[in-house]
Design a protein that fits this description.
mainly alpha, two-stranded antiparallel ribbon, elongated
């Protein structure tokens, strides 16, 4: 089996030296992956142009759903992969949906 041919620019991409899982949407490392891409990667433009159908991954600082749609971002920096009813926050930041009964 031959190795996958990668574009030359990927040799200097910051993602090459970090855990692969960080770039799978929903991983705990997404916040760091997105931050590295957006603020420090020297090949951000090439990466954005290099994948025409990203699904379930972080590419060029954008997290994509399994259907290839860009995901909204929580103020904490994580992609919002699922929402609790009435919340636009990620599951880590959203308050739990529990009923609290106060004594009468």
């Amino acid at each position: 089996m031959q190795p996958i041919a990668r574009p030359e620019w990927t040799r200097v991409a910051l993602c090459r030296t970090r855990p692969d899982d960080w770039w799978d949407t929903g991983d705990d490392g997404n916040r760091l992956a997105i931050l590295l891409c957006r603020r420090a990667c020297p090949v951000l433009g090439e990466c954005a142009a290099g994948d025409d159908q990203p699904c379930g991954v972080v590419r060029a600082g954008v997290a994509y759903s399994d259907r290839g749609r860009p995901l909204p971002m929580c103020p904490c920096g994580r992609p919002v992969t699922r929402r609790r009813p009435g919340s636009d926050l990620c599951l880590v930041c959203a308050p739990p949906a529990v009923e609290i009964r106060l004594p009468s």
